[in-house]
Design a protein that fits this description.
mainly alpha, 77% helix, single chain, 2 helices
């Protein structure tokens, strides 16, 4: 008899967390480059309405980056929490089943 499979696998969750982190890193790097380039241009003596608009957009990009990092952190925490709960529930179910059927259920990967 084959060992039962875990119904809720945490591998896709771990992959989702990693992918979200990679995308956040990429977006953060691009946003920081934009802000740095905007500041460099303003530092070179560029002025007028276009310079002011560029600075406002740069500040908005920087603000959105902060919100994005905060949202990512919350998402990451929720996904990790779900993963831990799924593992705990699987272990509890396995223990309960093993107590009823003495050793009939072997360990499965979560």
């Amino acid at each position: 008899m084959n060992a039962p499979k875990t119904l809720v696998s945490v591998e896709p969750i771990a992959a989702m967390i990693q992918k979200a982190q990679n995308l956040l890193d990429e977006a953060t790097a691009l946003g920081q480059q934009y802000v740095a380039h905007s500041q460099d241009i303003l530092g070179s003596g560029w002025g007028g309405d276009a310079a002011n608009t560029s600075m406002v957009v740069s500040e908005q990009v920087n603000g959105h980056l902060g919100k994005m990092v905060s949202a990512h952190t919350e998402l990451n925490n929720q996904l990790n929490n779900f993963s831990q709960q799924a593992q705990h529930q699987e272990e509890s179910a396995r223990t309960a089943l093993n107590s009823v059927v003495d050793g009939a259920v072997g360990p499965t990967s979560v």
